[in-house]
Amino acid sequence: MKFEALKPILACALLSSFLVACSSTPSSSSSSSNGTDSGSSTLSTNNGVSTGSVGGAGISGSDIDADGSIETVFYFDFDKATLKPESLVALRIHAQRLIANPASVRLEGHADERGTREYNMALGERRGSSVKEFLVLQGVDGSLLEVISYGEERPASLDSADSSWALNRRVEIK
Amino acid sequence: MYPKHSLRSRGRLRAEREFTSVNDRLSTFLTPHESKRALVKRFRRILCLVFFLPLSALAELSIEITSGVDNPTNIAISPIMMKGASLTEDISAIVSADLDRSGLFAAMSRANMLSNPRTMSEVYYRDWRIVGMQYLVVGSVLRQGDGRLSATFSLVEVTGERVLFTHVVKGRDSELRDIAHYISDKVFYTITGIKGAFSTRLAYVTAINEGGRQVFRLMVSDADGARERLMLKSKEPIMSPAWSPDGKELAYVSFETGRPAIFRQRLDNAKREQLTNFKGLNGAPAWSPDGKSMALVLSKDGNPEIYLYSFATKAFTRLTRHFSIDTEPNWMRDGKSLIFTSDRGGSPQIYKLNIISRKIERLTFNGSYNARPRLAADNRTLVMVHRSQGIFHIASQDLVTGDLRILTQTRLDESPTVAPNGAMLMYATKRGNKGVLAAVSIDAGSRFLLPARRGDVREPAWSPF
Fold first, then answer.
1. Which chain B residues are within 8 Å of A124, Cβ to Cβ?
2. Chain A residues 123-162 within an 8 A CB cutoff of chain B
3. Which of A117, A125, A160 minimises the CB distance to B433?
4. ipTM score for this prediction
5. What is the pTM of this model?
C-alpha cells in the first residue's frame, strides 16, 4: 500500500540525505559522521548515481540525476513567512529523508532588497523558522535544524525587479 | 581693529602686520622689496598650481551635487597655498567642495576670480563685490621650525568690508585635509550658527563582485568620501555598522563564523572583540549615549527581541517581550529610552520603549511601512524608511507635531543616518542596479550623491563629532 509506493522515494531520500551530510561536513569525517552503511546499499541499487563509496571519496551532489534530486529552495510572498502550497510536497520528502537518515541541516532564510536590512534579517529568520516548524511537525528532530537568516545580504538574483525579488524571498535547505 | 581697504591700495602689495595678530610671519609673504619680475614669476607659479590642483581634487572626490537651495550664500575661497612650495592637497578646493555640499553655499569657481589674495593686504573688495560675493576666505600656509604646517585664514564679509575672524590651524603634511575641513567648520559655523560636520567621518559597507563571489568590506572615510580606509574584509556579509559615542570604535555584524555575530573594533589599532555568539539573530547594535551599554537584537529565545548588553557586567537584559519582530533599536539622547521597529501592530512601525518602566508607545501611524528609526541631535526629528505608494523613501517625522515629510525622491532608499549637527542625513539608494550613497539636507532643500567607485555601497553611518 502506501509504504510500497514510497519505497523508491525513500531510497532516494536515504541517498540524498547522505549527500547533503557529506556536502556540509569535511570529507575526511563524512563517513564516520554519517556512520551507516545504508548509504552504500542505496548507492549500488540506484541508477541515478554513477560512482560512490562509503568512504565518501568522489561523491558530489552532481552525481545524482533529476529523478533523485529534490527542490531545496522554497519561495515566499513579500513580507510573508507562510509556506506556499507548492512547497509542501518537496518539504515532506525532505522530512522523510531526515527522519530516515538524521543529519544536521542549515535552513538559510532570505529576503528581497525592499525594506530595511535588519528587518529583513528578522523576516529571513521567520521564513527559515516556518520551514523548521513544518519539518518538526512531520517528525524531524528539531535539534538537527538550524535556522540562519541572511536577510537581503545574499540575493540569488541582483536585479531590482519583481522577477528577481521573487527569487530572493526564499529559504534554502543546505 | 582691522583697517578697511580702499581701492587706492591696489598695486601697493604691502603686507599689513596688524592683520596677523596670531602669527605675523605671514607678513614675509610679499614685501615691497620684491621686484615686479619676481612677482610675475610667482604669479605664474600660482597659476600652475591653480590649474593642476583642482583636477586631482575632482578625480578623488567625485561628488555630484544634484540640487541646492534656491538662494545659497555666495562665498569665494581664494587659493590657500604655501610660499615657494606645493602642497599635496588643494585646501581651498576642499573647503569650496565642503561648503557647496552643504547646499547652503555656492562657492565661486577659481577660474572666475579676478584676483587671488593670500593676505588681507591683497584683498580688494571691489573684485568680490562686482561678482556678487557675500563672503571671502583668504589664507596661506607656512612651514614652522618644527616641520609642521601652519595655516592662517580669515573670513571676510564683502559687503560690510570687515574681517569676521582670523584664525590659525596647525598640522602635519598628512593632515592637510583635516586642516581644510577645520577651516570649513569654522566658516560654516560663523556664517550659519550651525556647528560644521565637515571633520566627521562615515562608516559604510561595500559589496564587490570578485571572481563571481561577493566580497564585503567595512570602510571608513572622511565625511566627503575621501581618504577611504579598510576596516574589515570578508567573503561573508558585513552589516549594520554603528559608531561608539566617542567615535573611536565601530560595532557591526559579521557572518565570518558562518552565522551572524556582533563585533566591536577600534579604529586606531583594529583591535576587535566578538560580543555575541547566540543561535539565531545577532544584530542591529546601537551604543548607548554614555558608551556603557549596547542595545542589540537576539532571537535566542524564539523570535527577534531587543536586549541591553552591559560592557561592565557582560550581562544581556531582555527589554521586549512580543511574538512579533522587534528590531533596529536607536537611542533617545537621554539614554533612558529606545526607539525601534516592530510589526506587532500588523505592519512595521516605530515604537518608543522606556527602559526603566518598559512602557511601549507607538510613534508612527502614517503609512504601512515605517522602519529603522534614527533620531537627529535635536531629540525631536525622527528619520526612517517610509513606504509610500509602494516606493521606499526616507522620511522625517517631527515627534512633537507629528508632521511627516518625505525627504528623498529616489526609490529603494534605506539606512538613513543623520549628521551630528542635524543639518544633513545620508542614506543608501540605487542607481540602476548599483547601490550608492546619497545625502539630503534635513529640510530637503539640497541633496548630493557620493557615487560608488566599484560595486555596491550601503549602510552609511555618520560618526559623532
1. none
2. 123, 125-126, 129, 146-151, 153-154, 158-160
3. A160
4. 0.83
5. 0.79
